[in-house]
Amino acid sequence: MEKSAVRSSLCFLPPVYCSVMCNKDMRKPSRNMPPYEPTNDPLGITSWLFIIGLLSVFAYLIWQEPWLLVIAPMVFSVSYFDNKRRIKKLAILLDERKEYSLCEFSRSFERHKVDTWIIRAVYEQIQEYVSFLDVKLPLKATDDIFELLEIDSEEFDIDILEEVSQRTGRSMENAERNPFYGKVQTLEDLVLYFNEQPLS
Questions:
Q1: Residues 76-90: what's their mean pLDDT?
Q2: Is the pTM value of this prediction over 0.85?
Q3: What are the backbone dihedrals phi and psi of residue 144, each rounded to the nearest 5 degrees, phi first?
Q4: Which residues, at least 6 apart from 29, have a Cβ–Cβ distance to it below 8 Å?
Q5: Cα 185 to Cα 100, 144, 164, distances in angstroms
Q6: In the 8-state DSSP scheme, what is residue 137?
Q7: Virtual torsion, Cα 164, 170, 174, 178, nearest 10 deg
């Protein structure tokens, strides 16, 4: 059995067995995995300059084309009602999944072949993006990331991939060689994608 497979399987054993069988080169159980830490201050100087720049452009456009003042409220209204629709949709899913948890999600994967750090990181980081009113939505491996959960593709590419990569220690280099590259649609695909990436 490969060393990576041994690491994955031990994470599912009771703590007493892990403490005896795991040596210093093996990972800790996934429940002890550190949280994601942003590499940059999200509201640093660059971010504030970007926000000020956007506001300046918006103010200039309003000054040049006052009729945009009529369009702006309409745009905000559409965004508000769309967000309300999405929350209602997620609330229905939440009601249907009261008995689901990370445990059920984990059972969707072969414990001896998939790194449990990846399973937990994908579950927790995606869950952050579909939480509403401080309620966390239980997830299924078959959930479509973009259709069912409605996660923005840019947020997925820029934020979620980075978060999972950091937490799991999986490199994003040579991603185009990954058999799941360009084919990630469900949470299961995302887990298997990172499982193919090497440890950094």
A1: 87
A2: no
A3: -80, 125
A4: 10, 11, 15, 18, 116
A5: 21, 6, 16
A6: P
A7: -80
- The Cα–Cα gap between 10 and 5 comes to 9
Q: Are 17 and 28 in contact (CB under 8 A)?
A: no
SS3 state at 191: helix
Beta bridge partners of 199: 170
Is the Cβ–Cβ distance between 156 and 193 less than 8 Å?
A: no
Q: How far apart are CA 113 and CA 116, in angstroms?
A: 9
Residue 43 has pLDDT above 80, yes or no: no
Which two tokens mark 10?
Answer: 């031990």
Contact (Cβ atoms closer than 8 angstroms) between residue 100 and residue 140: yes
Beta-carbon contacts of residue 11 (< 8 Å; ≥ 6 apart) = 18, 27, 29, 30, 116, 117
What would you measure as the largest C-alpha separation in the chain, in angstroms? 71
Per-residue pLDDT tens over the stretch 108-132:
999 899 999 999 999 999 999 998 8
Distance of CA 126 to the CA centre of its chain: 3
CA dihedral 29, 30, 32, 37 (to 10 degrees): 150
Which residue, chain included where needed, has tokens 């159980």? 29
